[in-house]
Specification:
The complex is a heterodimer.
Chain A: E1 32-34, E2 42-44, E3 50-53, E4 59-68, E5 72-83, E6 89-91, E7 100-102, E8 105-110, E9 119-121, H1 127-131, E10 137-147, H2 149-155, E11 177-188, E12 194-205, E13 208-213, E14 249-252, E15 256-259, H3 261-268, E16 283-286, H4 294-302, E17 305-308
Parallel strand pairs in A: 1-16
Antiparallel strand pairs in A: 2-4, 3-4, 4-8, 4-9, 5-6, 5-7, 5-10, 10-11, 11-12, 12-13, 13-17, 14-15, 14-16
Chain B: H1 2-8, H2 11-22, E1 28-32, E2 39-45, E3 56-62, E4 73-76, H3 106-118, H4 128-136, H5 138-152
Antiparallel strand pairs in B: 1-2, 2-3, 3-4
Classes of the chains: A mainly beta, B alpha+beta.
Chain lengths: ~300, ~160
């Protein structure tokens, strides 16, 4: 059974004369794997994360949009410490506002009408703690929690049935909870106003935490790669090698999705270098993207190669 | 004849050719030969503020059978005084050798060659005498390059 890809950082390679004279070696052992799908039941749309002024000066609401394929709840924390040795338990000197429950649905807006208290008080908390990560304290942590659909289906109607409402905000995550946690920090925008930036996102699935990693070149629906992502002159989502078939294969560990399956297979008999960054390819990941409605594409945006976090 | 050839040509080469003709890069023209659609006649204008300014340089570019897994073969046909181009017109450019990547294209290769004309690199020479000249007396070497440009690249 395929496993989620275990991500390791790419070692920085010097680009220069030091690399000359080494012919690329063919890679015989490299296989093309197929992804194991981890269904991301809840996904915060990173681009939507923002601050909203409240009536009180220096106090801002945390706002964002998210998708949920099952009922879920949202909790937020400010200046929070996460303990990976204790099932990602979150503690904060500031008391957490009550969790907000949502039915399943796409493009939920947080906070909904009548919800308050999920705020950042820039007067009360020291600016340094809000703008940078210091010794495992994250300025802002947002956790979306749902019942793990597989486990909930098995437990339905039995005495094992679980309920999110029994959990305190930020408590140790049980295996029957599936969650996505977004870590963010405050930044000063060019106009002097405060903004929120995502640092990273993690998902918790059946007792394991995975960090979400973006796959480069996967953007759906955008008319073609632009110079900014390095695929200039290539129309649409086409393989950079044949310029015909759609890109569906990612080089790992660099995460450049730039090839179609058949060109990737041809490439690996010739070289072990990624066509985009020339880093060594350790494996190839074939990602089947179904041409489903935009909602599925949005979920795929959040689902990326994941890295498991070993407890410290 | 050409149509028969085109039918066997990989789609990528057809696409690249079409785009080179419909949206040429500034100062670069490339068109395939009628006899062989993998052979391109190329012209690069000498970049401004370089000793090659005002010159029109002819090159040949050939896409080998295993292109784009293997790089195109490119050679200057016009004589040029440049430390990274030898008297046979061969070019010392990393992306044409070990730094080739199949994500590069005819267009990006020609743009790199154009950039090489703006930025000669005598520390990685192909033409040893020219490189030596460049390092020992750059001003004089540039004057020679200018002279060659007017002698061989303008007509």
């Amino acid at each position: 059974m395929p496993q989620p890809y275990q991500y390791r950082p790419v070692p920085q390679q010097p680009y220069g004369p030091g690399q000359f004279g080494q012919p690329p070696r063919p890679v015989q052992t490299q296989e093309c794997q197929t992804t194991a799908t981890v269904r991301n039941q809840v996904n915060l749309r990173k681009q939507t994360l923002a601050l909203e002024k409240t009536a009180q000066p220096g106090v801002f609401n945390i706002t964002f949009s998210f998708d949920a394929s099952t009922p879920c709840r949202v909790t937020t924390f400010v200046c929070a410490r996460e303990d990976v040795t204790r099932s990602c338990r979150i503690t904060s000197p500031f008391p957490a506002a009550p969790a907000v429950s949502y039915p399943k649905g796409l493009n939920h807006k947080f906070p909904g009408p009548g919800v308050s208290g999920h705020v950042i008080n820039t007067v009360r908390a020291p600016a340094r703690e809000l703008t940078s990560v210091t010794s495992d304290v994250f300025p802002v942590v947002i956790r979306l929690e749902a019942l793990n659909a597989d486990i909930a289906a098995g437990a339905a109607g039995t005495s094992d049935a679980h309920s999110l409402s029994s959990l305190e905000p930020g408590c140790e995550l049980p295996a029957w909870v599936q969650s996505q946690t977004t870590y963010a920090r405050l930044v000063k925008e060019d106009d002097g106003a405060w903004g929120l930036r995502v640092i990273k996102q993690k998902i918790w699935v059946k007792g394991t935490a995975y960090e979400l990693q973006e796959i480069y070149g996967m953007e759906q629906g955008k008319p073609g790669g632009s110079a900014e992502d390095g695929y200039e002159d290539v129309d649409g989502n086409e393989c950079v090698i044949c310029m015909s078939a759609p890109r569906d294969t990612t080089a790992l560990p660099c995460r450049h999705m730039c090839m179609c399956h058949s060109c990737a297979s041809a490439l690996k008999t010739q070289t072990n270098k990624c066509p985009i960054c020339r880093n060594e390819i350790e494996s190839l990941l074939h990602i089947k993207i179904s041409s489903k409605p935009p909602a599925a594409a949005a979920a795929a945006d959040g689902a990326a190669a994941a890295s498991s976090q070993a407890p410290a | 004849m050409a149509a028969e050839q085109a039918a066997q040509l990989p789609r990528r080469i057809i696409k690249e050719t079409q785009k080179l003709i419909s949206e040429p890069a500034p100062g670069i023209s490339a068109s395939p030969s009628e006899e062989n659609l993998r052979y391109f006649n190329v012209m690069i204008l000498g970049p401004q503020q370089s000793p090659y300014e005002g010159g029109v340089f002819k090159l040949e570019l050939f896409l080998p059978e295993d292109y784009p897994m293997a790089p195109p073969k490119v050679r200057f046909l016009t004589k040029i005084y440049h430390p990274n181009i030898d008297k046979l017109g061969r070019i010392c450019l990393d992306i044409l050798k070990d730094k080739w990547s199949p994500a590069l294209q005819i267009r990006t290769v020609l743009l790199s060659i154009q950039a090489l004309l703006s930025a000669p690199n005598p520390d990685d020479p192909l033409a040893d005498q020219i490189a030596k000249h460049w390092k020992e007396n750059e001003k004089e070497a540039i004057a020679t390059a200018r002279q060659w440009t007017s002698m061989y690249a303008q007509n």
